[in-house]
């Protein structure tokens, strides 16, 4: 894959990223939050928590993002015309129709009949559950809550590709999905760095997606590859973590993809339309068939006694063109040099 644009020079091996060893927080220049808050909120809890009682802790690199003016949320209107049997949309179903400044689309939710929605005890680390005081019933409830959030908000929020609402304003509308402690933890992080870098949802990276009345994604695949107990960032409070994976395909006009690649460029690299023509000629063939693929994972954590309210969340992902030739954006852990 040609990485003409890449916000991080690190590996896009997401399983390794989600399982990575202890890592050190990266503090963006100009940040006003304390290093403790950054470490506490951006840390990616992922790894074999049952080994030695100490969780592995990668972090995502956070860069301050511009805060747009708050405007009203995209508004759900009537139910989508598609039935649950139409599509197919992968592991999600079309629910209500949403209208925003770019048009209308069907919001999606986890398909309860999908294989991914079925609880699989084989992915549960029973030893770590026992160590930190969780039960198999807790794991099953957390599995459902985590996948429901990932499918309905993490990958398909109103702010997926329409950024008129400020990050903090969006978080305020969705805060009921989070525990009071998580609201207190993530609100200042979202205010400082945005929803994308806080790992709350996928946002700020996609161009305007095609709106033809159905879901914005042509297909969404989600799964859970591990459920385990560990300690929260305070190294005292038990946390039950559901490690999810996803791959989502989005249709988008070639011109919009080109614009997104150029608009999102950061650092010293020079990216021009001519460079894209040379590296990714399929974006200039007039077919608009390339599209985008989002691949990565969310870690969703829950506290003791409440498997409905999210206590912790983080994400690692990469956004590429459909053929994988061009990486548009990525959120990846900042690896401690001692672990390389």
UniProtKB/TrEMBL annotation:
Annotated stretches, region: Disordered: 55-89
Biased composition (Low complexity): 58-79
Protein's name according to its UniProt entry: Uncharacterized protein
């Amino acid at each position: 894959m040609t990485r003409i644009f890449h916000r991080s020079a690190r590996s896009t091996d997401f399983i390794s990223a989600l399982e990575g060893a202890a890592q050190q927080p990266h503090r963006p220049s100009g940040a006003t939050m304390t290093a403790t808050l950054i470490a506490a909120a951006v840390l990616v809890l992922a790894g074999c928590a049952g080994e030695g009682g100490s969780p592995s802790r990668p972090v995502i690199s956070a860069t301050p993002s511009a805060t747009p003016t708050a405007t009203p949320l995209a508004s759900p209107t009537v139910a989508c015309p598609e039935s649950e049997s139409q599509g197919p949309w992968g592991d999600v179903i079309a629910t209500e129709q949403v209208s925003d400044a770019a048009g209308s689309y069907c919001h999606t939710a986890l398909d309860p009949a999908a294989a991914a929605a079925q609880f699989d005890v084989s992915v549960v680390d029973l030893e770590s559950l026992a160590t930190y005081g969780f039960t198999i019933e807790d794991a099953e409830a957390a599995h459902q809550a985590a996948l429901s959030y990932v499918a309905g908000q993490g990958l398909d929020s109103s702010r997926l590709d329409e950024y008129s609402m400020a990050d903090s304003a969006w978080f305020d509308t969705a805060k009921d999905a989070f525990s009071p402690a998580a609201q207190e933890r993530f609100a200042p992080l979202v205010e400082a760095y945005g929803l994308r870098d806080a790992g709350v949802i996928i946002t700020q990276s996609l161009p305007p997606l095609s709106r033809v009345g159905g879901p914005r994604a042509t297909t969404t695949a989600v799964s859970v590859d591990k459920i385990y107990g560990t300690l929260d960032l305070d190294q005292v409070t038990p946390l039950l973590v559901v490690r999810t994976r996803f791959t989502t395909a989005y249709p988008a006009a070639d011109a919009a993809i080109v614009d997104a690649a150029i608009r999102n460029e950061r650092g010293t690299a020079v990216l021009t339309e001519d460079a894209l023509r040379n590296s990714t000629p399929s974006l200039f063939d007039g077919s608009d068939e390339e599209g985008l693929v989002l691949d990565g994972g969310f870690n969703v954590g829950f506290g003791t006694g409440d498997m409905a309210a999210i206590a912790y969340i983080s994400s690692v992902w990469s956004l590429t063109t459909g053929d994988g030739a061009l990486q548009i954006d990525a959120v990846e852990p900042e690896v401690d040099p001692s672990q390389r």
